[in-house]
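Before relying on records like the one below, remember that each one covers exactly one chain. Contacts with other chains, cofactors or solvent are not represented anywhere in the record.
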Amino acid sequence: MTQIEAAEVETPADESEEKSMKQFFVMWSGQAVSLFGSRLVRFAIVWWITLQTGSATILATVSMAFMLPQIVAGPLAGSYVDRWNRKRVMIAADSLIAFVTAIFAFLYFADAIQIWHIYVLMLSASLLSSFHWPAMQASTSMLVPEEHLSRVGGMNQSLQGLASILAPPLGALLFALVPMESILGIDIFTALIAILTVGAIHIPQPDRSDEDKAKSPFGDMIEGFRYIRSWTGALMLIVFAMVLNLVTTPAFSLLPLLATNHFDGGASTLALLQSVNAGGMLAGGAILGMWGGSEKKVNTAMGALVIEGIAVFLIGMSPSNAVLFATALMLVIGLMMPIFNGSMIAILQSTVPKDKQGRILSLISSGASAMTPVGLGIAGPVSDLIGVNSWFVIAGFVTASLSVAAFFIPAVMNLEERMKQEAGEKEKEENTKVVEEEV
């Protein structure tokens, strides 16, 4: 082979990585546009329900309708994601969401919409999201080099923060200017953009062994449970996430009551706290995106969670006239949330085998999310008895304590070492097989 021929055959690793990252950014840009469309529609639907019914029960049950399918169906959906082509899963999920949204746009146009239709929309969107989310996360780890996963996690968190800032005012403006079916049309249009961008790129598929191919989807899900059970660090991570969702998520759901009952404020106080928090999320995601976190990602994640827990605790301890102090603490919480979330997702993407990421990520997400409705059910009555600020004290103390404890648990702190060990063992086995075949 001549030198010219060799140069044509060989592809430098950095060139391959650059091409892969470009494909990721094409996919990411489409998903970003789709996220904004979905957030606009969600805000508009919630506001429409509020005006039509004025019922807190209906609002709560609609939220539950969006949450429950992801919790219940998530583990099995993740198993299918590992079996199917992930690119096609994302395209199919976005296409079906657009189709369902189009039906609802027609119902609004025909003035035939009813409340029960909204439940169907939320259930459908949630079920399809339970396929789309693990497919997106698993595809990310196939396209993005491991050293950039934390940065990508930071970008995703910044995007969430930006959507939280822009979607409510834009949704309110659109709700006042155009009919509901037009707002739903925006969601359909943004979903089409997501479909086109995913369709334009190549997403590599992980290899599956013949043994894995022979298993049923339910068998894959059971294997996912066994994998997590045998991985002490991941199991403890799920327990941590469940406890945190039990105490922390309800705290932020009770923020309106904290603003009115504890700080004696009104809508402007609540808006200040929420907007500053969203701005912190945007900045925190940007910081992680540029910095990438420490070499050991778990240190970054747990360090951020300690600071977040202390800030939540101090909000609960703040006197009623310390609104500005609480606002500063909400900024700190906003900064830390994306650093924690982005780092943890990067850890899972870099440590879980790529052919198992769909089911493992879904299992962890479903397990963590399952405690949210339980926490909401407990937090309301308890806060009525002891005060909303007391729940913030409890949530902050539990969060900070668990995070500090994690630094002294080897199984948690060595999360990132497991994959390296498994990769080394797998490479050794493959080399042994090659030698045996040659002999």
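The radius of gyration is 23 Å.
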